[in-house]
UniProtKB/TrEMBL annotation:
Keywords annotated in UniProt: Glycosyltransferase, Transferase
Gene Ontology molecular function: glycosyltransferase activity
Pfam family for this entry, one: Pribosyltran
Protein name: Phosphoribosyltransferase
Entries under InterPro entries matching the protein: PRTase-like, PRTase_dom
Biological source species: Streptomyces virens
Ranges of residues in domain Phosphoribosyltransferase: 16-180
CDD domains tied to this protein: PRTases_typeI
Amino acid sequence: MRFRSRKQAGQELAVRLLEWASSGDLANVTVLALPRGGVPVGAEIARALAVPLDVLVVRKIGVPGSPEVGIGAIVGDDPPVFDRTGLQAMHLSEDKLGPDVARERVELHRRERLYRGGRAAPDISGHGVVVVDDGLATGITARAALRHLRRGGPLRLTLAVPVCGHATAAALRDEADDVISLLQPQHLRSVGEWYEDFHQVTDEEVLHALRELHPAG
């Protein structure tokens, strides 16, 4: 099974979350999508639940020479979250990755300024938060996001993705109150292989979704 698009994946994920909402397990919810790819998925969930959509900008720190493979991630001005087992296996150190972290931090703040336009991050204290991405391979970006959000005191922290590696989903249950994934393959090489259309989401698509679904427009 593959998803036709992020939109269709978000609609299917929304059905699962609507079941939770009807049972009372989700209340006073904000959907936080990880841009860019998580935004079209999160937009469908926010529409279905009739709740606000916002973004949490996370930047992956890639393996030198293989930037698509995540070895770490950053959120805001938080210290990097690294896969320490991976660092050791690849004979890498945090110091060696310092320039990569600095470069990604610049891009992270650029996107925050663009997407937020001066708006403050949402107050999630006492709220249900649904964190959405289009899929997870190593899960390092989701781990960084969940740890960042946990410090904000959410009432319930739910991770919702269309596809996630089985072992990754199991590991992330230590970080989230709930992990919802429609597909959990034993071996997930890349998220894109689970979509027919996996085009690169643009800043314009992110801004359009936020204008439509964020209360501040």
